[in-house]
Amino acid sequence: MPKGLQLLKENGFRLITLTNSPSATLTGQLQYAKLTEYFEATLSIDSIKKYKPAAKTYQWAAEQLSVNVTGAMLIAAHGWDIAGALQAGMQAAFIEREGQSLYPLAAKPPFIGKNLIEVSNSIIAHYK
Q1: Is domain 2-127 annotated with CATH 3.40.50.2300?
Q2: Contact indicator for 44, 26 with CB cutoff of 8 Å
């Protein structure tokens, strides 16, 4: 995962996290995985009290970074999260992990890959 995050960061993409987990849990997980350095911000629904996939949550996250929701992208391995982000007006990229799938009735994200490196390379090629 660090290589995919590094690729995005080196190519000028701002990286944040957005989770339904409490802030303290998120901080601990990032520290344990040694991923803290890649993210400029870590956002938890603790502040807004609306669980993803509520559209308001994705819109709130974009507001926290002073960007329009249409200029933000969610990268996730959960179909419900991708569906919520797309419904809120965000761009999205899906990582095809074993046991995870997109929702068949939801919009399909423009970027799909087997891992974060593959997804990151597709995003970089598209936007650069």
Answers
A1: no
A2: yes
